[in-house]
């Protein structure tokens, strides 16, 4: 599927009548050899190119800070949970399928930076093998089709996936992870075949859920509202995952406005993720846990019950860990396993000692006994 957009700095300079500093340009091009850029034309128009601190620009436009190699590429143990090429099974009830390495736009904070937009051996090769695996594992109640972004695939390919999965009796629901409602919403509301297909398979007995990814109120436009409305008309239940990002939404007022706006247009706030310590991401996007907790709680104080249903989550190798409390006086943070790779840890409540600027579980220390 063709999505119009910009892949080079020269295209941006020409289209928006700007000129990058030559040294900065050299460094940015060095980054683009490793992690490509793609900015959809629609999304590029949301950026104030004259503002160095524009949050939308920060999300999608490369930064010289990406030269930092602090962190690692696989922060959530995806390699060790891969049971077939393109299929991961970390949590008992859920199978994850990586359908493509392409997206409608390349987020600079992406936790799958190692594969998005780059030739990879991590995406699904033989979908029938994945279907066979799910059929054989009766404990699996849902499949998440992700990537990349599955909605950049032709609708016929996506329908083939959903049709085959819909034949598996023990699947309760199917999820699609997509940022298309944010990056290229017209792909949804202009494609009648896609909407008809989604409506066909999102039934009272097995719903399709679309999990999208709005990070800032500026991303909620008239076009994105039309896309969400079209999904709702197609009986697709839509929820949202946000990543807490330095310089984008690390402000209680911005985060609260985002959640209010999502509920207003019919999107359920689902998770706020702690930014993972990904290589070429961590140094300039990750907010310390102590600060993050205060931002999230500050936002929640300005939200009603529907808008603050989300959980503040760290998606660690061992599981999804909810950040539930802070004793600032004693530098103690309280955590709970919302989901866990080891079933015995589900629901486990524990506390850790904060270290300066700790941003991840591995940065924390055990409490002294």
């Amino acid at each position: 599927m063709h999505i119009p957009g910009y892949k080079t700095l020269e295209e941006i300079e020409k289209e928006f009548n700007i000129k990058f500093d030559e040294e900065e340009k050299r460094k940015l091009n060095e980054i683009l050899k490793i992690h490509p850029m793609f900015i959809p034309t629609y999304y590029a128009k949301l950026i104030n190119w004259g503002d160095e601190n524009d949050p939308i620009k920060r999300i999608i436009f490369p930064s010289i800070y990406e030269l930092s190699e602090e962190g690692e590429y696989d922060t959530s143990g995806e390699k060790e949970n891969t049971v077939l090429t393109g299929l991961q099974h970390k949590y008992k009830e859920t199978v994850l399928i990586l359908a493509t390495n392409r997206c409608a736009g390349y987020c600079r904070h992406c936790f799958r930076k190692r594969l998005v937009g780059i030739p990879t051996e991590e995406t699904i090769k033989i979908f029938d093998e994945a279907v066979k695996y799910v059929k054989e594992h009766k404990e699996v109640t849902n499949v998440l089709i992700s990537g990349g972004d599955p909605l950049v695939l032709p609708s016929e390919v996506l329908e083939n996936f959903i049709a085959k999965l819909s034949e598996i009796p023990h699947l309760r629901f199917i999820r699609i992870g997509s940022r298309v409602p944010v990056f290229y919403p017209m792909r949804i509301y202009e494609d009648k075949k896609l909407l008809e297909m989604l409506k066909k398979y999102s039934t009272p007995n097995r719903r399709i859920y679309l999990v999208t990814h709005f990070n800032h109120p500026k991303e909620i436009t008239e076009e994105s509202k039309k896309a969400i409305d079209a999904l709702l008309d197609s009986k697709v239940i839509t929820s949202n995952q946000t990543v807490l990002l330095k310089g984008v939404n690390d402000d209680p007022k911005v985060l609260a406005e985002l959640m209010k706006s999502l509920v207003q247009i019919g999107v359920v706030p689902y998770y706020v993720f702690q930014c993972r310590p990904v290589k070429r991401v961590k140094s300039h996007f990750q907010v310390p846990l102590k600060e993050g907790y205060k931002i999230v709680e500050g936002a929640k104080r300005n939200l009603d019950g529907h808008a603050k249903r989300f959980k503040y989550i760290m998606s660690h190798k061992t599981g999804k860990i909810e950040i539930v409390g802070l004793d600032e006086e004693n530098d103690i943070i309280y955590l709970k396993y919302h989901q866990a790779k080891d079933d015995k840890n589900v629901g486990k409540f524990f506390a850790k000692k904060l270290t300066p600027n700790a941003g991840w579980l591995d940065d924390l220390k055990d409490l002294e006994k």
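The chain has 13 helices and 14 strands. The two ends are 58 Å apart (CA to CA).
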